[in-house]
Amino acid sequence: MLPPLDHLPSRGAARATALAGKFGTIDYAGMEAMVGRLAHWLVHEVHGGLAPGSRIAAWLPKGVPAALLPLAVARAGHLYVPINPLLKHAQAAHILADSGAAMLISQPARFATLEPGDVPEGVALVEDSAIMAAMEASAPALPPSAADPDALVEILYTSGSTGRPKGVMLSHANLMIGARSVASYLGLAADDRTLALLPLSFDYGQNQLLSTWWAGGCVVPLDYLLPRDVAKTAARHGITTLAGVPPLWMQLVEIDWPAEARTTLRRITNSGGALTRPLIERLRASFPAVDIVAMYGLTEAFRSTFLPPAMLADHPESIGRAIPDAEVLVVRPDGSVTADDESGELVHCGPLVAQGYWRDAERTARRFRPAPPASVHGGTAVWSGDTVVRDREGLLRFVGRDDAMIKSAGNRISPSEIEEAALAVAGVAEACALGRPDERLGQAIVLFVGGEPALCETDREVLPDRLAEQLRRALPSFMQPATIMVLADMPRNPNGKLDHAALAAMALETAA
User: Using CA atoms, how far apart are residues 43 and 38, in angstroms rounded to an integer?
Assistant: First the structure.
């Protein structure tokens, strides 16, 4: 049986470097001590101690606290709730309220953005400096825990096609098996150094840490401003592994890379959107000796498939086959397995399947259902809602999504979150957000709004600018519409509802 999450520091050689960056270096022995001291502080000292199973939210940039909190919270017997640092106060407030967080760890500048009512009564606000002080103090340390690997340890918030973000419940085993699986198929080793560019609040981003530590390697977290910062850091630290999404690769192939960075880089991994043939060619030209690993996943089951690098040239459109420890089936509406070259729904079975959505039995019942009869694992499976095709070689090709999710710059975005923000603006009576194909982003956001009749004639010319300004204050950068269109009459279907097909066609025209 796999150990609990907080045992990861014991997997590396004591004096090998586990974490490096502007803060210096931390070896595995030092990481173990810091995790133990922080866990002791969380149990015995902070605000008189927290009840076991308390939710601890963190709204932090990359750094030592954000990297080590998942391990320390697990060791303390609490549940970790990471909040994407790109989110604004309204989204953070929703996560705090929905999770029932007992504590929010952040920085003074972020605390200053919170408005009255954002923080539920009783939530303790703790600055990240207090976290660093607890880890560095000469204080008692909790030893590695004896937690049940199947026990809940983390709530990871992800957007859905409707409504606000929902919390995916993850166990110790979910995270540890994911770490082991990725380390296995990527061939990570103790001499690997991973440059962590993705937000640590994403499952893909968090796994940069966990899979590297499973292999005993080193992680270098980086919040970068410019693409050349990535190349310089890769050269400085001898980076071997980069994980990213297509928009990031588009930026990175447009810069000159130092020879030192090209020499050490072994692999790049992609998820959060498909690699196009032109982008693959540019990656090959920029990094001719580097393995390119294409992957597909969903937060509810972490990662489902990967395409071995040797197969990318002949199958650039494929998302590959099941990763280790995952069982992936393509099924018809009746649950039977499809034939080769027949489209069906991707269903993920096995130990990577999460435990459902936090305090949301209705949505859990829709997505987490009994595995198809053909499943070897049985039990509960994740019915993805994604349509794929399996070919004669057992490789899968993504066809499309059944829901209305927008996938932009590697982010899964709920249209309703954008629509709710738009409807809060005076003069907006209706709103519909859609995605249209975009070479750099995967999808760009198009927002259609209908103005209030009384204001439509007088305010229609200035409404887009006023709306855009308020959306910039209310939503994170990755949720900002590329195009805003104010319509005098929103198209409707015979039932009087908004005609999404007509709006989708109009969205495509905005790209012309």
Answer: 9
Place of tokens 């590959």: 320
pLDDT in tens, 76-114: 999 999 999 989 999 999 999 999 999 999 999 999 999
* Alpha carbon distance 58, 299 (integer Å): 19
Angstrom distance (rounded) from CA 47 to CA 137: 17
User: To the nearest 10°, the Cα dihedral for 69, 44, 97, 474?
Assistant: -50
Q: Report the distance separating Cα 79 and Cα 172, nearest Å.
A: 10
Distance CA 285, CA 122 (A): 55
pLDDT in tens, 48-75: 778 899 999 999 999 999 999 999 999 9
Pick from 147, 170, 199: which residue ends a domain? 147
Identify any residues that bridge with 158 across adjacent strands, giving them in sequence order: 166
Burial class for 312, CB neighbours closer than 10 Å (0-12, 13-18, 19+): buried
Q: Integer distance in angstroms from the first to the last C-alpha of the chain?
A: 55
Between CA 377 and CA 177 the distance in angstroms is: 15
Same-domain check for residues 131 and 251: no
367 in any annotated domain: no
Residue 285 falls within a domain, yes or no? Answer: yes
Number of domains in the chain: 3
User: Per the domain annotation, does 437 fall within a domain?
Assistant: yes
Q: Has this prediction a pTM greater than 0.85? A: yes
Question: 402: which DSSP letter?
Answer: S
> Is residue 193 within 8 Å of residue 218, measured between CB atoms?
yes
What angle is formed at CA 309 by the lines to CA 307 and CA 315, rounded to 5 degrees? Answer: 60
Whole domain around residue 68: which residue ranges? 1-11+27-147
Query: 114 and 123 in contact (C-beta within 8 Å)?
Result: no
User: In this structure, are strands 327-331 and 124-127 parallel, antiparallel, or unpaired?
Assistant: unpaired
- Tell which of 289, 310, 330 closes a domain: 289
Residue type, 91: Q
My answer on whether 128 and 203 are in the same domain is no
Stretches where the chain sits below pLDDT 70 are 47, 159-163, 402-403, 452-461, 494-496, 512
